[in-house]
Protein 1
Amino acid sequence: MSHIYQPVMIRELLTHGGKASIRNIAAAFLARDASQLEYYEQITKNMPGKVLGKHGIVQRDGGEYRLIIDPSSLSPEERDELVRLCDEAISAYLQKRGTAVYDQPQSRFGLPLGQSALRSPEARWVPLRIMRHFGGRESY
């Protein structure tokens, strides 16, 4: 992929008024790195996708996931509350573990090995709280 780093970086700079943060440039590289996208597609299917499916929160339809509940049936306040619960779970886990969540062993290709960093008790309780929010129903 190194053959496209320079044009991707120049494009990112041009489309952002001549300057961009290192993080934004890195994100532009990542967005074009098919191996990383394929890795995280597998993570999505094998970890949170399966678990959330078992809890009746999402359903996989081919290459997509969808919420079982119709998001348009939520009030803006309910949606914001559920987003807040997710944000709190992520923040709590990252605060507890710090940058160590990113210090996973690397494969020979530089890809993380092992389980997802967000498989903590804090992250796992979010689906249960979402189910409780809707009266404990597992299908909506």
Protein 2
Amino acid sequence: MASNYAGVDWASEKHDVLIADETGEELLSASFAHDEAGLRSLCRALVRHDVQLVAVERPDGLLVERLLDAGLRVLALHPNQVAATRARFRAAGGKSDRFDATKRTQSSSFAFR
């Protein structure tokens, strides 16, 4: 069975999500509102894509509660872990929500193995 992974870049109004398969191929890249409807949609997308592990940047809050309620496994990665990778993978090294979601997805796939 194939394993899919997700990374979520957390923000106060929206969450950028990237779902990838075990080879790193992108399956979904989307943004979801930080409200009940948006979080329900995000969780449905993760479950529909059979995500095994979701990497987020904090271990608590409404997003984490909804992920756990949906039966998803959550891996909390400190934001500094993702920030430390920017210089290695981006020429400008600046913050990008999509990049952060991508790095979290990659980290969750390595953690699951």
Protein 3
Amino acid sequence: MAEAAPARTVLKIFVSAITIFYGFVPALADLNETHLLNPLWSEHARFHTAWFLAFTAGVSGTALFLIWRRDEVFIPITLGLMFSAGFWAATLFRNAYGGALVDSNGHTHTIAGIESNTFLFSVVSILLVATLVAAIRIYRSPSING
């Protein structure tokens, strides 16, 4: 059981970093004139943006509580995967509801030639799947857990 503690701690730090990224970075990125404060957006669209950002921060805070106070990583990883799945669903079905990855009156950011949200959610999604695999191995392995 002694070897499990360092592995679990490293995993918890990694899951926490991903959780902080998906939970709070979008709020920082969207609290400006291109999103929440955009005067060209309807008041209702801005309301939904504020609601989503508050909800995401709250879920992420809960996930961090679970990670560090309950030694629970599976629920936080699942919440992160659900958050990512929401992005991918919105991306996949954007033509059906008239959506777009970038606003025509906003600034477009790219990373390595890829739209920044698509790039970052790809990285987050891959990291979340990798942490899920690691969590299964660390928390469920008889060799680590005795």
